[in-house]
Inverse folding.
């Protein structure tokens, strides 16, 4: 079971990064945190209704606007392993062309399985001949590359999925 | 040709309107040889908390253009120059490379009395051939962003060692009968870019200079072939908006929006059509 203090800490960490969303699974609890400007509430769900008896309602979150909402599903969720849990998405900060390497003749900055730190450059998004070097902003392992080299990407489009270290 | 000299550049800069103030905030670094001035400037800005740095070299061993394309950097023959600066807060990618093109065009016009044209987004041409290329890179850091503006000016081209494909597309000021003082050009560029940086910080946007850009843009109204991401588009370059976006109308009448990419061929509207 995730402790309230842990959730506070995660929210604080999320606030300090440019990430908009964080998903985490610990035991039977799935936690999804989204920034307020994404117009989505903080959702805490558990896979067992019985957990509702635990003091979830007492969870007090730091002053965030809008006020987070706690949601407990009435029915049991499928127990299938969700490959997306415990991962975060690195998203494009702008519209542009996605490049995986600094030039066509060099190796990609990262590949599936690459370990990254917050400062690792993971790709370039080009807009108007401005080559924007995109950093991972999180520490972990690239588990999925979500865009094709040379593809046009939109603002907020997921580029990589990173499993948090 | 005169050697690049940081002292000469700084002395020259101090004589300019805001030069002394500009110089107090940054540094001019001159090297005999570097891999690429952009790389040196990036490393300097990532490790030192400077407001700006200008990096110049007589020679680049790994000079590059867009997407790693090599930039011919014959020793002493060009101005291989990078101006990198820090921006407080988040990066606002608002057509900086296009504003730079106008800024460099004006600095070159002042020194050479030549009227250069702009090929979208930011190549500078004389008589339809490239004399100056600009490669901008950016990195968002925790508390600031670093903008790296690389400028390569063809002062001379050693025709014997220049590949034919480059000769067909590029020219130099010397071959146009114009002598360029590289140190003076460097100080003029530092001053002009520092002023542009200040103006952008105070709210200048590409939309404010769009008329000047359109007037000097040789791509507009032409039949062009463009590489955009992984696709090749062909059509008439019919408009540029206040963000620097180019709009292309293809033969079927479809309108394409180019946020990035490159014009690989240009022809007059009534002239040849490319065969794909």
């Amino acid at each position: 079971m995730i402790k309230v203090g842990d959730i506070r800490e995660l929210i604080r960490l999320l606030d300090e990064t440019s990430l908009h969303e964080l998903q985490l699974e610990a035991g039977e609890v799935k936690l999804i945190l989204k920034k307020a400007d994404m117009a989505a509430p903080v959702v805490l769900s558990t896979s067992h209704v019985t957990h509702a008896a635990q003091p979830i309602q007492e969870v007090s979150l730091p002053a965030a606007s809008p006020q987070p909402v706690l949601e407990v599903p009435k029915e049991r969720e499928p127990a299938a392993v969700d490959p997306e849990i415990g991962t975060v998405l690195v998203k494009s900060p702008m519209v542009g062309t996605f490049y995986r390497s600094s030039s066509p003749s060099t190796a990609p900055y990262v590949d599936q399985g690459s370990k990254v730190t917050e400062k690792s450059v993971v790709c370039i998004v080009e807009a108007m001949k401005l080559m924007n070097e995109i950093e991972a902003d999180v520490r972990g392992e690239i588990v999925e590359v979500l865009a094709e080299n040379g593809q046009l990407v939109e603002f907020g489009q997921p580029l990589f999925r990173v499993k948090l270290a | 040709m005169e050697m690049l000299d940081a002292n000469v550049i700084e002395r020259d800069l101090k004589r300019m309107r805001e030069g002394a103030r500009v110089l107090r905030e940054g540094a001019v670094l001159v090297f005999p040889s570097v891999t690429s001035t952009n790389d040196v400037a990036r490393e300097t800005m990532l490790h030192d908390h400077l407001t700006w740095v200008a990096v110049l070299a007589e020679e680049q061993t790994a000079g590059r253009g867009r997407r790693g394309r090599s930039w011919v950097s014959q020793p002493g023959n060009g101005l291989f120059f990078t101006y990198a600066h820090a921006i407080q807060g988040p990066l606002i990618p608002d057509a900086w490379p296009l504003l730079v093109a106008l800024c460099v065009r004006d600095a070159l016009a002042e020194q050479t009395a030549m009227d250069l044209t702009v090929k979208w987004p930011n190549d500078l041409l004389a008589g339809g051939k490239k004399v100056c290329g600009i490669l901008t890179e950016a990195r968002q850091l925790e508390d600031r962003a670093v903008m790296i503006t690389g400028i390569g000016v063809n002062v001379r081209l050693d025709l014997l060692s220049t590949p034919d494909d480059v000769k067909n597309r590029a020219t130099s000021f010397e071959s146009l009968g114009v002598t360029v003082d590289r140190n003076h050009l460097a100080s003029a560029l530092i001053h002009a870019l520092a002023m542009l940086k200040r103006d952008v910080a105070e709210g200048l946007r590409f939309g404010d200079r769009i008329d000047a850009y359109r007037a000097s843009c040789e791509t507009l109204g032409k039949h062009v072939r463009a590489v955009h991401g992984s696709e090749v588009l062909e059509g008439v370059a019919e408009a540029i908006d206040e963000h620097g976006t180019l709009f292309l109308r293809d033969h079927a009448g479809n309108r394409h929006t180019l946020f990035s990419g490159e014009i690989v061929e240009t022809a007059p509207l009534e002239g040849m059509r490319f065969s794909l």
About this structure: The helical segments of chain A are 4-16. Chain A is about 10% helix and 35% strand. Chain A touches chain B at residues 18, 93-97, 99, 102-106, 121, 126-135, 148-152 (CB under 8 Å).
